[in-house]
Prior knowledge:
The protein is mainly beta. The protein has one helix spanning about 10-25, and strands at about 45-50, 55-60, 70-75, 85-90, 100, 110-120, 120-125, 130-135.
Amino acid sequence: MFVLDTSRDSSLLVVCTSLLLFFSLTGCGIFGGGGGGDDPPGPPDNLQLSSSQSGVEVVWQASSDASGYNVYRSEESIPEGDLSSATRVNGESLVDGTSFLDDGAENTTAYFYRVTAENDAGESDPTPESEVQMPFPETPGPPE
């Protein structure tokens, strides 16, 4: 632990405070910040999908310098670098972690997914596409 003795020289306190302010404002991540910088983050890695009665669980590995993630879904293949045909299923808010449950996926439908990372500098390129089939048929109603 470092203890700063400012009783003898207050200029040291000013220098240390200025450095802390500089590093926190520039988003260098030295004090747990990050998510900033001049460049968008790289794309997340290892996109994996699994389907269940609850929906599609979308899981990926984190991208360094990401503030959050966007999850895109389509019933058609999503072209590389063009997400305009896909729906951003996480809405307006970024996903904080590295997983997302798409509970809007419908049974007996095939879906294609891509995930992007985002920070203050912009959005990354998308992950390679991954496909999942929702195999669960509709549950029959009660007998009449």
